[in-house]
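Subject: for your reference before the review

Hello V.,

The reviewers asked for a structural picture of the protein, and I figured it would be easier to keep everything in one thread rather than splitting it across files. Below is the amino acid sequence we used in the manuscript, unchanged from the supplementary table.
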Amino acid sequence: MIKIELKIEYVDGTTRSLSVRPITQVAFERHWKKGLAALGEDTHVEHLYWLAWDSLRKLGEKPVEFDPWLDTINAVDVVNQDDDEDDSDPKVSSV
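And here is what came back from the structure prediction:
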């Protein structure tokens, strides 16, 4: 299973953390016509933003369309925690 944790920072300073569920992972592959492994090899920031946006949609939050939603965010961070590491020390990469 591929586990992706995201943290969204909005322009108003609020943040939202969420897990990218399998339904969004499959939607990504169908939409972009590439596997999630491509995120590690050929990362486009649009892909990460899309994962966050679609995850919110799948949670029923009904964000605005994708491009207008981009105007409401400052960043999307990928938060990865290795199983062998202490959960209090997450690795974060910002986009």
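For the response letter, the relevant points are probably these. The beta strands are 4-10, 15-20, 73-80, 91-94. The first helix runs from residue 22 to 32.

Happy to draft the paragraph if you're swamped.

O.
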